[in-house]
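Colleagues,

Please find the record for the two-part complex below.
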Amino acid sequence: MSDEIRSMLLEPIGIIHTPYKRREDIPRQGRLSREMCEIEVFPYFAEGLKDIEQCTHLFVIFWLHLANRGLLKAKPPQDGREHGVFATRSPNRPNPLALDIVELIEVDGNRLRVSGMDALDGSLLLDIKPYSAGIDSFPQARIAWQKDGGI
Amino acid sequence: MSDEIRSMLLEPIGIIHTPYKRREDIPRQGRLSREMCEIEVFPYFAEGLKDIEQCTHLFVIFWLHLANRGLLKAKPPQDGREHGVFATRSPNRPNPLALDIVELIEVDGNRLRVSGMDALDGSLLLDIKPYSAGIDSFPQARIAWQKDGGI
């Protein structure tokens, strides 16, 4: 396993441009925001975008560079009670990987214009995956401690 | 940025036990499988699981240790045409992060029994996040080149 652990080093594949310059500017849920954001994929990786314009929604994984990786409990802002970080979407977690689901508005070469992001401006992009309603949509999912549909 | 890049090293927080010992054993889509799998969170991180039993569905992010990180195109098995990797769910991608959405069946201390996984037995766990229908379910999402609901 030690070889695998040594190799778990991530490589930035792009940079995310958003209107959110400070943590306090970020909307609590990207989905609730209609702000337009831009995902710039570095030219070396642009070939990996072929046919992406055929997808209406995307998973975007990026690095939460301000995260505290040592925390295992979090208090979601709208809840106030302490939960384990793996039961919350807190940015403070051992592997600070952010997961946004965005709507793809426009593709211009290696730049994707999207809505629904909650990334800090300048965040490093790690991966993009197509969202498929057939395998990714679970409208029946429930979180018992969640009252208002947020996390 | 160089400091950030150096720090993008992932830490395994657990290990995933599945019936799939070889790549060819893995179902094409975890969602279509009813096999029971077990996520073992290492004791050091178990505190982060508090209240997770209140979630019906979870995002599970794990490391695809057999991936070829140099590929930027992929041919999905049911499609046969070549697409950019970021428009597919191919395991071969620059940052080989797998994203499964699983149904949580049972919690036993630091072990979660789940269905819907497509991980190779022994895969290293990176993160768990609660799936919220309110922010994560997009039944209207479409992928134009996808005919059968698969990727």
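The longest strand of chain B covers residues 97-108.

Comments are welcome before we finalize the supplementary table.
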